[in-house]
Structures are given as C-alpha cells and as structure tokens.
Fold:
Amino acid sequence: MSDDEEKQSTEADEGSQESMVHESAPLGENIYALLIAEVTQAWTRAFGTDPQQAGKDRWLTVARIIYAIVLVTAVIAMQVFLLQSVSTKLCNPAVREVREIYDKFQTAIYGENTYITVNGFHRGNDGAEVNMEGFRALSQDTKVAICSVPLSQPYFTYTILLIWTMTCLAEIRRAVRLLYATLISIPTVTYVEEVLEETTIKGMTRGMKFFIGIFCFLPRIAATMLLNFLGCRWLLSTVSLQDLFLNSLALEFMVVLPELLYNTFATDRGQKLTQATILAGDKASSPKGTSLVVASMWVFAALIWVYLYMVYVQQVLPGYNWDVRPVCRANPEVFAQETFS
Structure:
C-alpha cells in the first residue's frame, strides 16, 4: 500500500469514530472536586509504600482531608435542611392555598355536579357542563387568583418548569460526566503508587472509588434529583404567575451551593490543588455521532419529565380537569388593564 493510500485509509478510520475525551480533563471547581483532589493526594501519602512519605506531615494531610469532608458534609446538610424547609414551610402552605382557590372555581362552575377528592376538595364530574355565570359571579380578586394558578397557563408554566429542570439536569450531567471519568474510565489499580503521575490521576484503587462514589456522587445526584422534584412542586403551587417566575430564579441558588462554599471556604492551597489535578484522558473511541445522541437524550429527558410531571405526576391539584384556561380565555376582562386619564 502506498503512503497516500495508507493516509487516506487512516483518515477514513478516524472519520468513522470520535473520541469521548480528547485530552486530560480538569475536575472542575466545586466542593466535590476538592474532595476528589484531596482524597487522591492523601490516599497516596497514607497508603504508599514509602514510610518516610507516609509519615511526613501526616497530621496535616489528615486535617486537610477532614476539612474537605466537613465542607462536603456542610453542603449536603444545607441542601437537606433547605429541601426539608422548602417541603414543609413553602410547598405545603402553597399547595393548600392553590387547592382552596381551585376548589372555589370548581364549585362555582359545576355547582352540585361535583365529587370530593381524597384531599377533601371539590372536582367537577366527567362530562359536567361548565356554568360561566357561576364564574362571573365570583369577586374580581377571586377570578384573578383562579386565572393566576400556574396550571391555568400550561405553556408558560411548562417553559418555567423546563428551565428549572434544565438547571438541575446541567448539574446532574456534570456529576455523571465526572463520575464516568473517575469511576469508570479511570482504570482500577492495585497499588497507590499507580494513582498519581505528578498531578494527573492515572488510576484509582477500589477503596478510593468506593469512598468517592459514596461521599461525592451519590449525595450530589440524589440531592439534585430531589431538589428538582420539590422545586417543580413548589413552582406548580405558586398562586401568582409573577411569583412563579421569581421563585424559579430563587431556587437556582440551591444548585450552586457546592461552588459557593468552594469559592468561600476552600483554602488557597486546596483551590490550587483542585485546579492543578486533572484526569487522564480516555483513549477509548465510540461510533461517530455518539455525543449528539447523548446530548439529545438529555434534551428529551427534560422535555418528557416536565410533561409527565404536569400531566400525571403532580399532586398539587390531583384530578385537575384542565378547565381553568378555557374559562379564563372566555373572560378576558379578568386581566383587563386599568386605564388612566
């Protein structure tokens, strides 16, 4: 085979595959990345075969990894506390209020042609005829409150929940990508001497992978998934479309807690170590278009989850009849702007 033919053959082979990771990847800059960097350094020193290296600055090494664990624990504790507070102090009162508003709407437009849900609120029977006069007889404030229920504006609400879900999925995707790079792509080694090459992580022992998986990835992914669910519930129970938009912005700070604590409380030495520590590149290749397929899967996951949550999963308004929107559209004067002379 000539040199030109060999070159063309090589280019064809390279064109049919794409590398998942082209070069060594950084850990990122958050509390979890700091813990990974500290664990690899401390593990190598503590369990290395060199007794002088293991004994040198032993207490300082232990203090550094304990400090990293404390910061990770603080992130988890704050997220758990905030999640519990959102559920009990924000979600539950808001859910009760929006259920009472929708109950007034159901009794106004269906009268006695209703049934009682397991939560003790009225719902219109299947096939029941809507009484527009009953809706018009309500006070203006009540009509505005009814037409401000998030599910009364499904397209706007879907967009807000989609943005919130994408925010959470971005965090989950970063965690999954780092999980793949550290626990799957990086080879499992027997000796700690094989873990580091200067500041590049070339491999990890089983103990390191287990420790990092339990303290880094499990709480990070679980907390973000739970936060997304409770956030969707809180947003769907908001009694004002304006508050719906503002609450979606307020929720985001809970996702950035790992970065916030890292930038605020991590030592300068810890930040430099995290920035300097990189993961060895993955030389494995996959069929062309794999990255596009993976990205599309994340897109479809967000779109489908929000739809399923609004239509089937949500329990803010169980038995929701999707009848507020047509009634409010038939009465545009509800949101008529005041005119000033």
Observations:
- The longest helix spans residues 58-110.
- The chain has one domain: 23-319.
- The chain is about 65% helix and 5% strand.
